[in-house]
């Protein structure tokens, strides 16, 4: 026979998301912007290297 868990509050907390949907959307937007910035920096570095070679 299985005994039900006594600490149901902790079990319920595990089921709930850490961030709200709005906050997750904002995080996704920030990550997208960060990846765009990283891409542009990488592209700029490659152009500088390419221009030095020629």
Topology:
Blueprint: H1 8-15, H2 21-53
Features:
mainly alpha; 2 helices; about 55 residues
User: Mean of the pLDDT scores?
Assistant: 85
How many strands in all? 0
Low-confidence stretches: none
- Portion of residues in beta strands equals under 5%
Oligomer: single chain
In words, what does this structure look like?
There is one protein chain. The protein has helices at 8-15, 21-53. It is an all-alpha fold and 54 residues long. The radius of gyration is 24 Å and the shape is rod-shaped. The N and C termini lie far apart (78 Å). 0% of the residues are buried.
Summarize it.
This protein has 54 residues and is mainly alpha-helical.
